[in-house]
Amino acid sequence: MIEKILLAVSGLGHAEEMLKTLKEIPSIHRAKVTVLHVVPPQSTAAAMTDKWEEGGKILANAIQSLNLNPSEVSSILRQGDPKDVVCQVADEIDADLVIMGSRGLKRLQSILSNSVSQYVFQLSSRPMLLVKDDIYVKRIKRVMVALDNSDAAKHCLDLALFLLKDISGSQLILTHVNTDLRGKTSEVSEIVPDKDPVFAPAYAQAQKYGVQTRCYTSSGKPGEEICRLAEELNVDLLLLGSPDRRPSVAKSFVDLDRLIGASLSDYVRVNATCPVLLARTTA
Questions:
Q1: Which of 69, 166, 213, 276 has the CA that lies 20 to 30 A from 159?
Q2: How far, in whole angstroms, is CA 165 from its chain's centroid?
Q3: Strands (E), the chain
């Protein structure tokens, strides 16, 4: 399911470290990796030359740090607007996963500072793994999926099981938040999933793969609760579905309502204390 990975590097952050951690997972050990660095347009030819040379060094350092088999990695150095080029290259190589660093900027800041990761997630339908600069990347053993009845959440479950099925001692953590927009929170409760309409199908699917699974529920504001659950349950990776609400004629435009409004995926992207894999399905 994950055979081609696009790693966008800028010379900063933990994206390379995240990829090394992922490559330890048996199911994607042999995935092909494309490392991309984008050189933004410069005002003078001399500045462009300097940036191009710097970009080449960033690529070389990233590939060296990954320590991958040369047959499994390729590099691309390209000029242009980073947010557009990342999307273009992801389509060109038909990437199954895009990995990027993220500064974790909040909604309006993402627009004002031209956040590359936020725009790429808005404009791409491909799963994206965001790794904030201020988090600690751990070996992946405990993966959390935030469940609801959406197709995007089911897609996240499929991805989680693909990652965990061959990891010895791995654990899938299924969570569901009962929405309380007043902000009134409840204790995190572990439940028996067999007859629960939200958990039962996912739990049954996990059992077919032999993946140890635990189920937890709480109530409150969904974004805040998902982040709280991920931290309290000490997860190594959080998977969150994000349905695309735009009509087909507007797929090439950023969803401004999602950027500056109360977007669940945006809140989790900014506030989660672990890497976040956002998976999108079309509405």
A1: 69
A2: 19
A3: 4-8, 32-39, 73-79, 97-102, 128-132, 142-146, 171-179, 189-190, 212-220, 237-241, 276-279
Residue with tokens 């999933």, as numbered in its chain = 193
Dump pLDDT digits (tens) for 157-202.
999 999 999 999 999 999 999 887 776 778 889 999 988 888 999 9
Cβ–Cβ < 8 Å for 14, 137: yes
- Residue 116 counted as domain residue: yes
Domain assignment present for residue 110? The answer is: yes
Residue 233 in tokens: 């349950």
In a domain, 179, yes or no: yes
Q: What is the domain count for the chain?
A: 2
Residue 13 is predicted with a pLDDT of 67
Q: Side by side, which strands form the sheet with 171-179?
A: 73-79, 32-39, 4-8, 97-102, 128-132, 276-279, 237-241, 142-146, 171-179, 212-220, 189-190
Q: Which of 132, 165, 193 is a domain's end point?
A: 132
**Which segments of 165-198 does DSSP mark as H helices, in order?**
none
56 with 158, same domain?
Answer: no
- Integer Cα distance of 157 and 174 in angstroms: 9
CA separation for the pair 280, 34 (Å, rounded):
21
Host domain of residue 84: 4-132
Give Cα separations from 36 to 58, 88, 125, 135, 161 (angstroms): 10, 11, 18, 22, 28
Q: What is the C-alpha to C-alpha distance for residues 215 and 158, in angstroms, rounded to an integer?
A: 16
